[in-house]
Amino acid sequence: MNTPIRDFVAAYQQKKTARLHMPGHKGMGPLGCEAMDITEIQGADALYEAAGVIAESEKNASALFDTRCTCYSAEGSTQCIKAMLHLALKFHGGQGRPVALAGRNAHKAFLYAAALCDFDVQWLYPEHQSDRCACPITAEGVARALEQMNEMPFCVYITSPDYLGGITDVEGIARACHARGVPLLVDNAHGAYLKFMPEDAHPMALGADLCADSAHKTLPVLTGGAYLHIGKGALQPYERHAKEAMALFGSTSPSYLILQSLDCANAYLEKDFPGRLGDLCRRLDACKEELRQRGFSVLPGERIKLVLKGDGPGLCNRLSENNIAWEFADDSHVVLMFSPENGEEDFARLDRALQCPLPPKEGRAPALSPLPRAVTIRQAIFAPSEMIPVEKALHRICAAPTVSCPPAVPIVISGEIITHDALAALIYWGVDQISVIKE
Ligand SMILES: Cc1ncc(COP(=O)(O)O)c(C=O)c1O
Hints:
Elements: H1 4-15, H2 53-65, E1 69-73, H3 76-90, E2 99-103, H4 108-117, E3 120-124, H5 139-148, E4 155-159, H6 170-178, E5 184-187, E6 210-213, H7 215-218, E7 226-230, H8 242-249, H9 256-270, H10 273-293, E8 297-298, E9 305-309, H11 312-321, E10 328-329, E11 333-337, H12 344-353, H13 377-382, E12 385-389, H14 420-428, E13 433-437
Helix pairs in contact: 1-9, 2-9, 3-4, 3-8, 5-6
Bound molecules: pyridoxal-5'-phosphate.
Pyridoxal-5'-phosphate (PLP) binds next to helix 3.
């Protein structure tokens, strides 16, 4: 597979052209990568009107992911999530205020999209007690919820995989959605690699209409690189407005470092990656089995994540002592993310760090339950607001989603009233300040 964006920039670098264009570093600087950092000059194409090297590279990605259309993002899945929701709304024929039917563990990018595009949300809650990052909903649950709605939602929106490695039945949910003519949108930020697994488990192969992949989270791509994919069987011709939708939420100066990284990834993904990913999965399966033998509680789910249930802070201390940085940890979980780029030395460190388990401390995480809503998400996010200590927030209305990243899964949704239960959940999850609407 060719790499047209990288080839263009490499040729430009070689020519040593006088750079009388942006950016101001003129190809020199302390990072060492400045010479590769250009802008949309003659021949470099333009991300949102792609017809040259970018269009060619995006076609390569589309072929790799077997999609009807794939668009690059240099601003993460955050941009793709907003764009796909905007697209679903654009093709929605319904009357009245549009509603999305969405898993309650949505990333805050989804809430920002609800505020910017002004739609309402009917939440799908997990059928059994679960963590705030997980929302194990089923195809039957989605079918039931759709049956009970008077007006069809403009989309069903799910997050799979979730932060704790949980994988949802995308195929079954897609069938349930399509039976009612509703598109399925998947936040696949954590799952770009699924395409290259021995068994293709990518949402595009399982019938989703649109999905957002953070290439940078699991593939060898610079931070910020992501894809908006449109499925071959998508219910609407979303591709006609895809670039327009991405432009609505993106900068007019996309990073060419990130675009080149996405471009180069195509060649690598096509060649070595699937084999190396298979090797990694087998290596991690063995590692997880060994940890289980030692008494660790290892959560099932994604094969390239190692999710330990236990005393989060205690486990993090052990990881730190062995010079290991983790992806995410809370009171009772530690999430470690691997890719084929991790070497044996990393596994050896892990082995030293995790000699014996540390059980979780007493106390059960509160379940997320429906809260009364006072105003729409848009009204709440755009209202005059103030930050107050969480203990003083009882009966106040949540404004901006107060949640740090990771996992950026809001505990209280903008516009909801903070009840006693919500307060307990916020305190449990260590939130000490919260944004509320001014009274
Ligand atoms: C589930 C989920 N969705 C979306 C995002 C946003 O992705 P990005 O950082 O690529 O914008 C994240 C980021 O961590 C995430 O965890």
